[in-house]
Write a structure and sequence with these properties.
DNA binding; about 55% helix; 4 domains; carboxy-lyase activity; about 0% strand; zinc ion binding; disordered N terminus; disordered C terminus; DNA-binding transcription factor activity, RNA polymerase II-specific; mainly alpha
Length: about 675
């Protein structure tokens, strides 16, 4: 018999030394070795096999996980005493094992022949479980303390690619939810929260339980609770609320922007890990919605639209698209689930309409969440501002596919009927300005007028294309054009009136975009010579926007271009009506272009384009126009020589509003 077969099973052996050394001196870590062997004999199945109740061979990874294609998820419940020392002892054991004699190696192979084959064919745990993205992204309690360098490399290299950069402006990596989670002083926190409650919340219904957040602020102010005792999701929402409040404060522009971005950075620091993917909560979804509005008002709507997609996916994952109580871990009541759905649809509908992108919240657009529309002359309850905006966003998603020429020609009757039905169901102060009895009601009236007319004019916008007039009759064309022109005029007028009673007209990206885009389209439409009301609206708009130049400095690139185009078109209109032949002469006495608080020179038009603008993103019929525009000397020259018969106003509008991202994407 071979020596390995004659060995008694009760002979003590230790893989880190010869038999003589073990017999003479007991190892210092005997208790740990005995504990490891006991765990090896009584080892439970891995977590995936225990969850699926299938056979497990107790390897790392096991054969079942390998066959099912999720070897990186093969984890075992670790003993707390061993989890911290496992990685420290693995490498020395491997090194000492390689120094054993040939006899010991052969005996080991005889004792366990299958383990050798598995180890040669399967990657070791250090190449799968420990270094996988999932294990690195897990909480610190799972990762050993010796993996700080690997986590730092992951946060600085991989997280920015996923849009979760946790690096501050000075280049230092911030730990999510720790170094940037400090709350401001008491006075500032009370002031910013009050601004959100009084100025932002009435126009952005995201937090349905704002009283609970106010109670949290009171407990932090009175020192009844420390910030470290509050969960990360609530702190993230609180910082997002403070950032939104700072945007509508009365501070100087530079201080206001700096303070808002500081709070925004604090809120985003809580999203630096993948906890939002593992444990979505109501507070987290609310925080993401508020952050979406903050990013919009920071003139970064593209980032807000991307973040909105993440918010919608999280909401779908917890079952918010289903009416009734929310299944799963949230346990929300039907009313709170409905409120979150409506807030998500509100944000997604307006952003998708402004960007011309397909919406992602169609599954949450449930008409049963909305109150019924009342018939004319009926005694049913009228819609308040929030309900009217919810209905408007519902109609936006319903008709968003009707933005082509053929769809508008087919569905314009239904579109007009739906909007007329919405208007007849409004409360009295939302239908008639004379019925408004408070500043709040006036703000609601003009805000709804701006958004409702912008949505309606956007649906009518295909009438400006060169192909539409050939597809419809003269009566249909006249009907749609009149509704389109009236919607533009009413929208711009509402924006002008709102500017005098609310800061939303220049602080909110949605209000600025809807007002300026309506004014630009109105300027591109050829007006009758006696259309004095249109010229008056344009002049009044330019006057109220140029009164405070610091607000214009916060406009996005597209909005600055739109304002300059409106100013140039106004000068051309004045030259045409003067009849003195000045149209062919350079304009030396017209009002200057004022952007960023300074008088702007008439620089070449193509210099204002972002280098990321690509001709391939435009339709084929617009590319020739774009190439010709880039060859023009200036915006005034281009508008002066523009041939309205050769190119449609819609093509010109799409070119000017093509860039809706700020040049500086940093926070």
């Amino acid at each position: 018999m071979t020596p390995s077969l004659r060995r008694t099973p009760n002979s003590p052996r230790h893989p880190s030394g010869p038999r003589s050394a073990v017999a003479g001196t007991p190892p210092t870590d005997l208790r740990r070795m005995l504990r490891e062997r006991q765990l090896a004999r009584n080892r439970k199945a891995c977590l995936p096999c225990r969850e699926r109740k299938v056979r497990c061979n107790h390897q790392q990874p096991c054969q079942t996980c390998i066959k099912r294609g999720h070897s990186d998820l093969c984890f075992y419940d670790q003993d707390p005493d061993l989890s911290g020392s496992h990685h420290d002892t693995t490498q020395p054991e491997i090194e000492t094992t390689t120094g054993l004699g040939n006899d010991d190696t052969n005996e080991t192979l005889v004792d366990n022949p299958t383990s050798h084959d598995i180890e040669n064919s399967i990657p070791t745990p250090s190449l799968l479980g420990g270094n996988s993205i999932i294990s690195v992204a897990r909480s610190d309690s799972i990762q050993p303390l010796s993996d700080n360098e690997r986590r730092t490399a992951f946060e600085t290299g991989v997280l920015p690619l996923l849009g979760m950069d946790t690096t501050t402006d000075n280049g230092h990596v911030t730990r999510p939810g720790h170094s940037n989670s400090s709350l401001p002083d008491i006075q500032e926190m009370i002031e910013l929260f009050s601004l959100y409650r009084d100025r932002v919340h009435p126009f952005q219904f995201v937090v349905d339980d704002l009283a609970e957040i106010e109670a949290l602020v009171c407990s932090l102010v009175s020192r009844d609770k420390e910030a470290r005792q509050v969960d990360n999701d609530s702190l993230c929402l609180l910082h997002a609320i403070l950032a939104a409040g700072a945007q509508f404060s009365d501070l100087a522009t530079a201080i206001r922007v700096s303070k808002s971005r500081e709070k925004l950075q604090c809120a985003l620091s809580f999203l630096g890990t993948f906890d939002l993917l593992w444990n979505p909560s109501k507070r987290l979804i609310q925080a993401l919605l508020v952050l979406g509005h903050v990013l919009q008002n920071d003139m970064n709507p593209r980032a807000a639209w991307i973040l909105g997609g993440t918010t919608i996916r999280l909401a779908l994952s917890v079952g918010l698209h289903q009416s009734g109580p929310t299944p799963g871990a949230l346990h929300l009541s039907p009313d709170r689930s409905r409120h979150l759905r409506l807030a998500i649809v509100w944000q997604d509908a307006l952003l998708s309409l402004a960007f011309g992108r397909p919406p992602a919240s169609q599954e949450m657009n449930i008409e049963s969440d909305l109150p019924a529309l009342t018939q004319p002359n009926s005694s049913g309850p009228a819609l308040n501002y929030r309900q009217a905006m919810n209905w408007l966003c519902h109609l936006t998603l319903r008709h968003l596919q009707s933005r082509s020429e053929t769809a508008l020609l087919k569905d314009h009757g239904q579109i007009f009927q739906d909007f007329d039905g919405l208007e007849s169901s409004l409360a009295s102060h939302l239908r008639d300005q004379q019925r408004c009895a408070s500043i709040q009601e006036l703000q609601e009236y003009y805000s709804l007028q701006l958004h409702r007319n912008f949505v309606l004019s956007t649906f009518c916008r295909p009438i400006l294309s060169t192909q539409f007039k050939r597809l419809c009759t003269d009566d249909e064309y006249t009907l749609i054009l009149n509704r389109f022109r009236n919607a533009l005029k009413q929208g711009v007028s509402a924006f002008i009136r709102l500017r005098s009673i609310s800061s939303h007209a220049t602080r909110s990206w949605a209000f600025v975009h809807n007002g300026l885009s309506s004014a630009l389209l109105l300027s591109f439409i050829k007006q009758n010579p006696e259309a004095e009301d249109t010229r008056q609206i344009q002049a009044e708009l330019i006057q109220i926007l140029t009164e405070r130049n610091e607000d214009i400095g916060q406009f996005s690139t597209a909005h600055k271009k739109a304002l300059r185009a409106i100013q140039a078109l106004q000068r051309l209109t004045e030259q045409e009506t003067s009849g003195d032949g000045a149209m062919n002469q350079p304009d030396e006495h017209g009002p200057p272009d004022i952007v960023d608080g300074t008088t702007m020179p008439r620089e070449p038009f193509n210099d204002s384009q972002d280098p990321r603008f690509d001709l391939c993103t435009l339709p084929v019929e617009e590319r020739s126009l774009t190439r010709s525009l880039r060859s023009m000397l200036s915006l005034d020259d281009w508008l002066r020589t523009f041939d309205f018969d050769a190119f449609s106003p819609l093509e010109s509008y799409n070119f000017i509003m093509s860039d809706q991202a700020p040049t500086d994407m940093s926070l």
